[in-house]
Amino acid sequence: MMILAGLGNPGAQYANTRHNAGFMLLDALQQAYAFPAWKKQHQALLSKGRIGAHEVILLKPQTFMNLSGASVQAAMTYYKVPLAQLWVAHDELDLALGKVRYKQGGGDAGHNGLRSISGAVGSNYHRLRLGIDRPPPPLAVEDYVLSSFQADEKARVQAMLTALSDSFPALLENPLDTLAKLGNLRA
Known about the structure:
The chain is α/β, with parallel strands linked by helices. The protein has one domain: Peptidyl-tRNA hydrolase (Rossmann fold, 3-Layer(aba) Sandwich). 37% of the residues lie in helices and 22% in strands. The protein has a seven-stranded mixed beta sheet, sandwiched between helices. A hairpin with a 2-residue loop joins strand 3 and strand 4. Helix 1 packs across helix 5 and helix 2 runs parallel beside helix 3. The longest helix is centred in the C-terminal third of the chain and has 23 residues. 39% of the residues are buried.
């Protein structure tokens, strides 16, 4: 069993913001793999199902980004999921919009959700970094990540989510090779 935590902020006002890219991926996976409806558990919205050969818990912490670690830790403890089986999908300023990179372990690069998770459970988990671009000057990072995707950006975001969803069974087995084959997503 593995946990795939998508990072974002709860509430309708944040639904289509850049900071909610992780939530958006989980919503796409829930639909693509016919996971059951979300239920409230462990300070999160949770849905359990299968992706390929893997039993997967989709977890959308409802604690707001800065406190995501509490929800992730509670779910990991309850389901006895080791750190090696934790995946986190999150927005990434240092990648072009619609690009994806995989990484295991590392620092938080100023991302408060990653900082919270690493502080709660350790940092050697799998990461899917979903590119959202850097803000154009003079827009502050805080304002940019909480802004909605523009109309011309939504198609690129949707293409990224669809390509990732379609390839997710292979991605769980071999993330680097799978993303390399999805060249249009590779930064």
